[in-house]
Design brief:
Length: 766
């Protein structure tokens, strides 16, 4: 793994950590620690990773010992004692615990005496229990001499009141071969009982099995009474089976995080489970959460044991977004066609349990045979209006995939004519409308493929396969949103920095990701750019670095202060993409006496909660990174300032969506800071002036981008424009062309939306 800067490596560590790719995360931290061997924060990170997340205490031990060389804190010795106890090194565990107690008495207390006593008590109990475990394993086949040692040790442990199983360890150790065979036979009986504890759901013909809890796992915590545990297990089994026997109670609701679950989404999930038998066209209006509904359904099916593998097909620009949402909100680790594993071994990639694939990749000659060769329990297709034509390879792919359940997601199922609707329904429920010829005869006006005939009967059949929640029906009325873009004149030094970077990049043939990074950093602030430049040839970028060092304030900084000073007591959120830009902002606020709190993705949960609480109760300004803002709803605030602008419009929407959402009672104000002659300035011009993005409903930008002719990430389109341009004039022409394409895409979207409203009406809501 090669990364340009330590910051890049640390960002990669956080990415791997989120994916639970702990080995890769470990390597990233290990690499940074070679450069910064005494950084206590990094050492804390790697110890936490090894011990608590990766479950590799033996690897964490070496780093904890290094941490102890840099500081002497009693709680570190407690942690080391815990590690040694886990590894069975009881004497060392006791020694480290003794040292921790000695240090705790002499150090300023970061915890109360009572809390410290509780910590010591818990670790002592664990050490004693591990001591008993080590003993029983060591003497699993005792001789008379060893048996005497066991009895003596057990007597000592009894005196120390160590918790141990109700079955005496000596009896357990002396278990005869016959008794062992009886125990194995009992285990077989238990397995048979698990098979009997199953139910059949008639609608699906699928058996669900509930395994009883194993009593052995609870024995150390019993006080001599086994029968109550059996009663409890039976009660739990009965309750769980009762829930699984119907779909009135959802299992997924307490198993998903960072998700606002609304009543209509919950009812949608129940209806799909009860009535649609896992085959549904989800057509909620934009912004109502089709992705959340699909995620809840996936999680519910997995928890109920009704599916074991899932394939999600989506346009290429949405692959990473789906992957991120499935991981962070639903706790499901999908592999995607953007991952290295796909490039490494394409053939075995399609054998994974949870796959997110670009539909273009899946339908290619190289992959289509492998995709349709396998049986999938559940297939999800996002932006399903791309399947409207039965002659396309995409439609044929989805039609040929072997699947039990299928969800099709689109806000605009009909874009041109009713035959498109027939084609989509045929994928879900073949025969629902019989043949295309009969469908035309019974449900389409002659001479007008857009006009439905026998409308009531058509809608009745559609209700069997489609759910479409609308804003008007669920009474979703959000306050208005007002956006203002400040196009700022850069200082001569700022202009010199940006021009110098452009000239430098055009002379050097850097790889695309590096060029992309440097341009985005420069668009945020020169201070965000500086760290990356320090890893270049210093002689080549010296003039740019000198210019950055000579800066005192930025044109963005001055504009930011003006906004903040106009209404100093009104709460405001400032968003930025880079930590160095955040550092500049917080320093600026500190110099001008403006109270503020910071919110970053790498802060511990407790600090995040404290920051939000302080912002809510007393502090007027929150400075946040994008990763910091994810999953936090800030409806108590109604002003957002975009200090910099992501190249992806959906990221801009996500920032605004933290404030402008259900629960917001006031109009929302959005301020965009844009420096003239930068790429961000061109982006905001076409988004704001060409398609009026900030006046659109939250979520509408996604389908609009879906109507662009090229199926590429928006960032890639921007990079192509820059790479093809040779000067400011050609750059302007490139963005002008993209602006016109966006206008056409929006027109197509609005036309399709109008047709859907006319044909479908509001008869398919919850």
């Amino acid at each position: 793994m090669l990364f340009e800067t330590p910051e890049d490596t640390y960002n990669a560590y956080k990415k791997f950590l989120k994916k639970e790719e702990y080995r890769k995360a470990y390597r990233c931290l290990e690499k940074i620690l070679h450069e910064f061997p005494d950084d206590t924060d990094l050492l804390e990170d790697i110890v936490h990773l090894c011990v608590l997340q990766w479950n590799k205490p033996e690897m964490g031990r070496q780093w904890l010992i290094r941490l102890l060389r840099n500081r002497t804190v009693w709680i570190d010795y407690v942690r080391l004692s815990d590690i040694e106890a886990r590894l069975g090194n009881i004497d060392k565990a006791k020694e480290y615990l003794k040292q921790a107690k000695k240090l705790q008495k002499g150090q300023p207390r970061v915890t109360s005496k009572q809390e410290a006593g509780k910590i010591f008590s818990e670790i002592e109990g664990f050490i004693k229990y591990q001591e008993w475990n080590v003993l029983t394993k060591k003497h699993s086949h005792p001789t008379p001499e060893k048996e005497k040692v066991i009895e003596t040790t057990l007597k000592k442990l009894d005196e120390k009141k160590v918790v141990k199983p109700h079955i005496k360890p000596a009896q357990m150790i002396q278990m005869s071969l016959k008794e062992e065979e009886k125990r194995k036979a009992a285990a077989v009986d238990q397995s048979s009982l698990a098979q009997q504890n199953s139910i059949e759901i008639p609608s699906y013909g699928i058996s669900l099995r509930i395994s009883p809890f194993k009593e052995e796992a609870f024995l150390p915590f019993l006080n001599g009474h086994v029968s109550p545990l059996k009663d409890i297990c039976l009660l739990i089994d009965y309750t769980y089976l009762t829930i699984q026997g119907g779909f009135d109670e959802l299992l997924c609701l307490n198993r998903i995080t960072n998700v606002d679950k609304y009543w209509y989404q919950i009812e949608t999930v129940k209806k799909v489970l009860k009535q649609f038998h896992g085959r549904v066209l989800l057509c909620d209006e934009v912004g109502l959460g089709k992705t959340i509904e699909a995620g809840m359904l996936i999680k519910e099916y997995l928890l109920r044991g009704m599916v074991k593998n899932v394939l999600i097909l989506t346009p290429a620009p949405l692959v990473s977004q789906w992957k991120e949402e499935m991981e962070t909100k639903f706790g499901i680790d999908f592999i995607s066609t953007e991952d290295f594993e796909f490039m490494k071994d394409t053939a075995s990639f399609w054998e994974n349990r949870f796959i997110i694939a670009s539909i273009n990749t899946a339908k290619s000659n190289r992959n289509m045979a492998a995709v349709i060769d396998r049986l999938y329990d559940l297939v999800v297709v996002d932006e399903a209006h791309h399947l409207r034509n039965r002659t396309t390879l995409a439609w044929k792919l989805v039609n040929q995939i072997q699947k039990k359940f299928i969800f099709l997601l689109t806000a605009t199922p009909v874009q041109n004519n009713l035959i498109e609707l027939f084609n989509l329904i045929t994928l879900l429920k073949p025969g629902q409308f019989k043949t295309e010829k009969i469908f035309k005869q019974e449900y389409v006006m002659k001479g007008n493929l857009k006009a439905p005939a026998n409308k009531e009967r058509l809608r009745e059949l559609l209700r069997d396969v489609m759910i479409r929640n609308t804003r008007s029906v669920i009474d979703l009325k959000l306050p208005k949103r007002f956006a203002s873009t400040l196009r700022l004149e850069p200082s001569e030094t700022e202009r010199e920095i940006y021009k110098g970077l452009n000239d430098y990049l055009r002379v050097h043939d850097f790889k695309k990701p590096m060029t992309y990074l440097l341009l985005r950093e420069a668009g945020s602030s020169p201070f965000a750019l500086k760290n990356s430049l320090l890893n270049m040839d210093i002689n080549e970028v010296k003039s740019i670095l000198d210019a950055i060092d000579s800066l005192e304030d930025l044109c963005k900084g001055k504009a930011l202060l003006e906004i903040l000073m106009k209404n100093p007591y009104e709460k405001k959120v400032i968003f930025t993409q880079y930590i160095k830009s955040m550092d500049y902002i917080t320093d600026l606020l500190w110099r001008h006496g403006i109270p503020h709190v910071i919110f970053r993705g790498d802060l511990p949960l407790r600090e995040k909660d404290a920051a939000i609480e302080r912002f809510r109760e007393e502090i007027p300004v929150l400075v946040s990174t994008e990763s910091g803002g994810e999953g936090r709803n800030l409806q108590f605030c109604n002003t957002i300032i975009n200090f910099d602008l992501p190249w992806n419009p959906m990221r801009i929407e996500q920032r605004i969506g933290r404030l402008h959402r259900i629960g917001q009672t006031r109009d929302v104000f959005v301020f965009n800071l844009s420096v003239k002659e930068t790429i961000e300035d061109y982006i905001i011009q076409i988004l704001d002036n060409k398609i009026n993005m900030f006046e659109m409903v939250i979520g509408e930008i996604e389908p609009v981008l879906g109507y662009l002719e090229e199926e590429k990430d928006f960032e890639d389109l921007i990079m192509e424009i820059w790479l093809k341009s040779t000067d400011s004039r050609s750059l302007e022409d490139g963005f002008g062309f993209l602006g016109r394409e966006l206008v056409l895409a929006k027109q197509k979207y609005l036309k399709a939306k109008e047709i859907d409203d006319e044909i479908l009406g509001e008869d398919y809501e919850m």
